Amino acid sequence: MIxxxxxxxxxxxxxxxxxxxxxxxxxxxxxxxRNIRPLLNQRCxxxxxxxxxxxxxxxxxxxxxxxxIHDELLRRVRSDDESDRMPPExxxxxxxxxxxxxxxxHSGAPYPQDELIPTSPSEHWSFQPIKRPTLPKSDxxxxxxxxxxxxxxxxxxxxxAALLRRIYLDLIGLPPTIAxxxxxxxxxxxNSVVDALLDRPEYGERWARHWLDVxxxxxxxxxxxxxxxxxxxxxxxxxxxxxxxxxxxxxFAIEQIAGDELPDADAETTIATGFLxxxxxxxxxxxxxxxxxxxxxxxxxxxSQAFLGLTIGCARCHDHKFEPLSTQDYYSxxxxxxxxxxxxxxxxxxxxxxxxxxxxxxxxxxxxxPDTHILIRGSANRPGERVDPAVPAILVQQQPDFVSNGNxxxxxxxxxxxxxxxxxxxxxxxxxxxxxxQQHFGEGIVSTASDFGLMGSPPAHPELLDYLxxxxxxxxxxxxxKLHRLMxxxxxxxxxxxxxxxxxxxxxxxxxxRDSMLAVSGRxxxxxxxxxxxxxxxxAAIEANSDKASIWTPSEEPEASRRSIYAFIKRxxxxxxxxxxxxxxxxxxxPQRQITTVAPQALTLFNSDFTQQQSRAFxxxxxxxxxxxxxxxxxxxxRLALCREPTMAERINVREFLATESLDEFCRVVLNLNExxxxx
Amino acid sequence: xxxxxxNRTPCGRTRREFLWQAGGGFAGLAxxxxxxxxxxxxxxxxxxPPHFAAKAKHCVFLFMNGGPSQVDTFDPKPELDKHxxxxxxxxxxxxxxxxxxxxxMKSPFPFTKHGESGLExxxxxxxxxxxxxxxxxxxxxxxxxxxxxxxxxxxxTGSIFIGRPSVGAWLSYGxxxxxxxxxxxxxxxxxRGGPIGSASNWSxxxxxxxxxxxxxxxxxxxxxxxxxxxxxxxxxxRASLDLLKSLNEQHFLQRSNHSELAARIESYELAFRMQSxxxxxxxxxxxxxxxxxxxxxxxxxxxxxGRKCLITRRLIQRGVRFIQLYSGGGHIEDTWDxxxxxxxxxxxxxxxxxxxxxxxxHRP
Lengths: 680, 364
What we know:
The complex is a heterodimer. By secondary structure, chain A is mainly alpha-helical. Chain A has 28 helices and 8 strands. The model of chain A is unreliable at 1-26 (pLDDT under 50).
């Protein structure tokens, strides 16, 4: 009896289903996975999902949809009453979608029994405390290799010469000199090379630039006057020195967010807070009130991306659509920075005096904070509920105590900074360790370096990342130099590059290309620190400016041949060579340089005045150092530019060329070689 | 436990990453394939089919920098005539930078109806007015700002803030370009100077720089660093490129799974082809005197903008996707900013541009 009944029901379902399908699509029956789940995900799950459960309803897995709401669900999506209809925003569901939904429900709302229920955002991996995983059982001594290769044989290392060049370009952004190559050939010990390079001032000049990308560094404000940010270069110098002095990263973070609020505040720690003032700024804003919140948004967005890998800026106008971050979270962070005032007189920016030093930083004028309100839909003239300073709720069990510890300032930033730099923060160490990994290996363990949220990429090796983060905090005491050393001594980093290698083949950044050209030509001016220099900009690019007569006065030699980190970054007029070769976006925090390959790069590197100058200087150097003999000149060129001897085939090629063409021309070709800009 | 994968965010950087990865590489092809095959696959500017059949294939954006007065050009206001000379009493916030608000002023330029549609256009644009029936005038357009810099930005990027991609950059990203030997998005500025905010107006914003506008000059060498360096003969330039190619290919043979190396080899060849093709575009001596006259090239008043408009036509013929021409630049009086003497200002700039604009609008 029972069996018969079941058969009957099944038959009926198939019959009904068949009829409906003919009516709707004429072909296939509605399938939950193919038709229904995508629709629910697209239109319903933002409010009725793992992130948010309005009306205590979740529609992000079949098993979560109670049978007793089926009728109500159909009624609401079909309703003609706009205040009643679901979804409340965007277009109505189409007739086809409504029919599919109806058919699915009428057929008993089936779903695959093995469908997984999406996890709650509070279970998201990067929000969990960092726990040190045990090392895998492996014969490899190096922890990174133990995690990555476990029981497999280590891949072969790159050749000594290739590795030497790789290490130099990676750590100091310059190729090794002939003397350094010879020394390494005599007593080649890679570890000691790493140690030596980390002690060189050029290390900071290379690695500070990576942080400046994250900090959206520029020397001017953008917009009509695009005025120079007075003394902002002191922040750039601060970052270089922080890297060179191996300032512990937790202290580095605290200084940039709240260096002026520290008990031992001084000029240096106040300069560090320039981080908060690096953003673009319109000195003639359309709406001053809105402009104030735009500036605060720049600070909140940059700080949360840089240190926490969170895209909280999206929660300015509405609760974040895809992350567990609310407008309350966002404006609570705004409340932390709201006491800051921009020192200015009309359109002119002023600096803060700390002792004798002019410092480009914001200022808090009192220990009493102004009220901060949630802004409805982000609109400056629609204040909602008042908020107190707080950190994103999803990240803490208990809020840190935002209390002032003095009478100069509110102390809010110091409290936030200490929480960010605390070992209990699940994000800070993971995020910075991943950034360092990304620069060394070409791709992060998390490939979205500034997005560790639900929308970011999951870590390729979660255990390795956590091991490194924990090791960085507890074994290395936040020392970046120790972290570099750990990574660079692994086989994973030293292996020969191929399409699948963990260490990626990646073009050098424009700074390292330009600096390498200068180093090889012998023209590099190693002068450190101080006001920026202005590289020459071709007339054709100057002409396109409204104040073309005065906008750019190029520096004379030898100032013009300083390292690229000292070049003036003018937001309205980026040096064309820098821009073409994918300089970081100077307006918002840049998690990783883009690499494009387009013809204007070839034009710049092959035809520009800069290349002509370097080619001539390079050729003169070859004549000076190798004499008139062609073979010796070729060898020297190869060793200076590529750290190796030329192959026989290459020699023959070049010899033929030099029979009719000049050494200058040959040098121009060498500076354009793929091998020159793609380190092995 | 399966990972929860929500819809891709429009806010985060995952999209940007996607943008670039979409133009990214493929691996595993042999050297000859990679070097000879359709290099477009690798270029961020490879032509991409639109999602819907499109009528328009190109866009010309004539940017009258400084802001021509709408009530003196395409938007007649009969009420203004009635209140000419009276003080302003409205509620709307007008004036910028604390400047005093003047009196109401009727347009000094008479409007007449044109074409079958009867579109009203002022006496400033007699040539353009002949195409009245081909024009769509939007009179409801307004900006969120009274300042030039942020206003120009909003016109080009949709936002009053720097850092967003311009419309030309979006088109280049979305559609790529037909002719790889020329830039996809060309910008020609006024010899007196560019717009306020200059390159932010044709920026690719947070997208790769490959999509940004490329400055194109109507005289001399059209592109930055396009010309063979002074003192280098064409034969030497080619010999150097050949040596570079040969050495790069030897290097590539051992690394043939790195398609970016092949792309970079090709980029030098592309640059070389660009050299001859771009030079050809600006060589207007190939046009007949009659054509040159139609664009006003032989009249000093219209010569500059006329050249640009004729070059624009030649760029379109060669497949360039998006071209932006600026009229006016530099100091206030050199732009369409009629702060001081609107009559002289607008007459001057209209005289420079009307005839060439009328011609570039012309349907053959």
